[in-house]
Amino acid sequence: MPVTDGTEQLEAFARGVAARAVATTLTAPAGPVHLNFPFREPLVDASPSEAPAPPRHGVAPPPVQHPSEAAVTSLIDALSGRRGLVVCGPEAMGLPAPEVAALAAALGWPILADPLSGLRAGRHDLGGVVATYDALLRNAAFAGAHAPEAVLRFGAAPTSKALNVWLAAHRSIPHAVVDVAPAWREPDGVASSVIHADAAALCAALLARLGARDRAPEGWLASWQSAERATSTALHDAIEALDEPFEGRAALDLASALPEGSTLVCGNSMPVRDIDSFFPRLDRDVRLVGTRGASGIDGVVSTALGAAAARRGPVALLIGDLSFFHDLNGLWAARRHNLDLTVLLVNNDGGGIFHFLPQAELAPDAFEEWFGTPSGLDFRHAVALHGGRYARIEDPRGEAAAPLAEALARPGLNVLELRTDRVRNVELHRRVWAEVAAAFEQRSVTA
């Protein structure tokens, strides 16, 4: 931006830049826009006065990108009659859930719904939604028996490593990625085609052309639905059987506590992965959002308070201690702007995700110095500094559903801290996966 001079020409220019910035935030890939404003020394107005209210200028939404007739025809030829999957990855503004669900139902395909896609929770048709794919695809027998013949993906690449690795192992099949131009979110190189079109418009165009003969073979969707029900029960039972705090329980507790119309902000690193693994499909108007791929562990608290400022019902934040520490100053906005936010702080005193990675094989001293990075901080003091309420989860199993529900009903900043052990956390994750796999195999034998 230029230095202000008070002229009508500059004001008109500024309005144009503002309109462009807002339009850019709404254009795929949707996200933040940065503007630089220079100021003259000494940064004060020598004769301050009440400025007149500027005229309001609306910003027209970006035009809908309709798919070409050739793209629709090509997709139908590639997808119809096959054992396929609709994969819904993270999407900043949320994917058009009713339209995607209707398309998947017409194809007879399951929907593998990343929690940040907008498909995992809501009032749309959840009948074909599979939330437990991360656990299912760790089972070699299931993964092998359910190899897809085609994939249609909306949104960015999914969070689940198990899903991404599995999809990459099937590079020879038709794999269409739908994105709005000029986006090209295809980091793994698995797409056989990229269709630049609005997701809802593409769904409508395909639905208008699909017939009964285009559905997947009988039993394909039912097999995924049956596996989803069994695995969801097995995950719940395995977690409930634990008599110690487990970080994955936070996803179940949040799903239980979040009321209609609420928002869950998923912290990066382990929190979003645990939400991906353990947050069930939810027949409730709950919005799940995150900044995965945009900011690492920086700015997560501020993002959650931005969601709270939108005043769209209660807002909860699931966050790790390192992310919380990196944006502690963001808590200032809660009192300054009278915002309501409930934080579930999972404190394992460091970078828990690195215990799942090859770095965990380093010598203990080197690992802790460079990857574990324990802070040893007592966060209750920071919460008090910003006028919030703080409480520890005292339940011996780490169950937080009841205190979360109470906190979400209270105004202001509420921070609930769950203490866990980083090393033990890896062991418990593997134990849960093993018990789920055993339960699934027993079910297969019984069937």
Structural domains: how many: 3
Can you count the helices?
A: 17
Sheet with most strands: strand arrangement: 3-2-1-4-5-6
Helix and strand composition category: alpha/beta
Output the CATH homologous superfamily of the largest domain. Thiamin diphosphate (ThDP)-binding fold, Pyr/PP domains
| Backbone shape | globular
CATH topology of the largest domain: Rossmann fold
For the report, how would you describe the main beta sheet? 6 strands, parallel
Verbal overview:
The protein is an alpha/beta fold and about 450 residues long. The protein has helices at about 10-25, 70-80, 95-105, 135, 140-145, 160-170, 200-210, 220-240, 250-255, 270-280, 300-310, 320-325, 330-335, 365-370, 380-385, 400-410, 420-445; strands spanning about 85-90, 110-115, 130, 150-155, 175-180, 195, 260-265, 285-290, 315-320, 340-345, 390, 415-420. It has a 6-stranded parallel β-sheet with strand order 3-2-1-4-5-6. The protein has a 6-stranded parallel β-sheet with strand order 8-7-9-10-12-11, with helices on both faces. Strand 11 (about 390), helix 16 and strand 12 form a beta-alpha-beta unit. Helix 3 (about 95-105) packs parallel to helix 7, helix 8 crosses helix 17 (about 420-445) and helix 9 (about 250-255) crosses helix 16.
Explain briefly what this protein structure is.
With 447 residues, the chain is α/β, with parallel strands linked by helices.
